[in-house]
Amino acid sequence: MDLNIHESWKPYLKDEFNKPYFENLMTFVKSEYQHQTCYPPSSEVFQAFNACHFNNIKVVIIGQDPYHGVGQANGLCFSVQDGIAHPPSLKNIFKELETDINKATPESGNLISWAEQGVLLLNATLTVRAHEAGSHQKQGWETFTDSVIKIISEKQNDVVFLLWGGFAKKKSKLIDSTKHTILTSGHPSPLSANRGYWFGNKHFSKANQILERKGFRAINW
What we know:
This protein is an alpha/beta fold. The chain has 9 helices and 6 strands.
């Protein structure tokens, strides 16, 4: 597994890359990609870091696992490749965007334009076997991505963290809330959204209001 990660991250993550757990993780991932069908494509495993550079982080959104269907995952949480049907959670994200900021649902579910504006779309686990949800959990990815969250918390200021659902909310303990803003809500999955825990959170307009108040440019969601 090639460590295809943008230079801006390397000074902050180089110690992590040299730890035994990370070396074991890379051995595991390399073997999985050689012997199984895995997602996202190997060139896009670190896409979240390549599309959103360290010194450009304004917002962090935390997901759990990549999509495990054919051609869906592109290395950004909740995002899919161009031309792929929108999964249920992404449909609900777009519905909330429409009611919150009057943004029409886009044709493509590829969220790379968010990432390029400073939204880190970080899955806790960066790889998965085809059609086997959670199959690469507890191999070291969570240790790595928890470290990423801690490093952002320590080295950056005024980042807006959007924590959707119980899994993401647990990451709040890694974040210094005196330096950063944490917004929480239910998960956009139908199970949570249809119970009233997602719709109406207005996280997109709230994040932009916070960014503008701090003197940053708002995100064009």
